[in-house]
């Protein structure tokens, strides 16, 4: 995000805060998130706590006059089109094409709803890879209503997979907090963490099964990190080139001399860390090479996807300049994910 975008984002969050009637603060985004969490807490106080966050999303959406419909097949799309008015059908009639691309959802506002209709209707794309995003997409649409309320004047709106507009980024950040509503989510995370003695993939799977069955594993893992009382890092690693090698390959300028094609190495693709990890100077930088001696490397080459775990030295993790990112021992659990990635959890609580 560049300075121009940051300026636009600041304007957007201040606009939303003003529309919500909130006061002034140095952390406007945080204030908006807390406002929405307070609304959710108020609803739970009146209606009770559902068993899972999936149920919370559905029941809370209904209280906002929002109907949620998941579309898994073309037959589901046909059923949706049978319900909309001729005018709406003319607008969203290409739903099969839309949902075959990068559209996560379409939300329709019934401008003249029947007494039995809900005013808003979110149609969630659950086809192919969109299915992994459906839980978060549902909360994204809920947050739109929380932030805009009756000022929403659209007949319909698309939600795309890639959302870089300031308004959409704000909605995503608020949705990330509500989707893993801490009053329900944190106690389960702490219980499973205590049971294992550290954060593990098995613990994350149990958290997901107990409280957030429709959330993706990646999102659940990221959410768990926010509530872990120790320094923990979550890494997604895959094969890649050094940044300089990628630039050279993509350069339009040809060398006068033949050059060898660089060899891809196992590297960090993305990473998250717990709050206590942020207080340390240890950073697993994007695109840094995974040491050949690391358990992460061992996990990547296990085609059966069995978890590899144990203690290794942090000193082996080096930046491109040759210096290590830290010293001492870390406990690592690594598990291959699909054909191209390995996920790893690293923690400093090596003694369990």
> What number of structural domains do the residues give?
2
Question: How widely separated are the two ends?
Answer: 39 Å
Query: What is the string of SSEs from the N terminus onward?
Result: HHHEHHHEEHEHHHHEHEHHEEE
Strand content: 15-25%
* Spatial strand arrangement across the major sheet: 6-5-9-8-7
Which residues form runs of ≥5 with pLDDT under 50?
A: none
Kindly provide the radius of gyration, computed on alpha-carbon positions and rounded to a whole number of angstroms: 23 Å
- How much helix, percentage-wise, in residues? 40-55%
User: What oligomeric state best describes the polypeptide chains here?
Assistant: single chain
Globular, elongated, flat, extended or rod-shaped: what is the shape? globular
Largest sheet descriptor = 5 strands, antiparallel
H/I helix tally: 14
Average pLDDT reading: 88
- Class by helix and strand content? alpha+beta
Total E-strand runs = 9
Can you walk me through this structure?
It is a single chain. By secondary structure, the protein is α+β, with helices and mostly antiparallel strands. Helix content is 43%, strand content 18%. The protein contains 14 helices and nine strands. Strands 6-5-9-8-7 form a five-stranded antiparallel beta sheet. The protein has a four-stranded mixed beta sheet with strand order 1-3-2-4, sandwiched between helices. The longest helix has 20 residues, at 28-47. The protein is globular, with a radius of gyration of 23 Å. The model has no long low-confidence stretch (mean pLDDT 88).
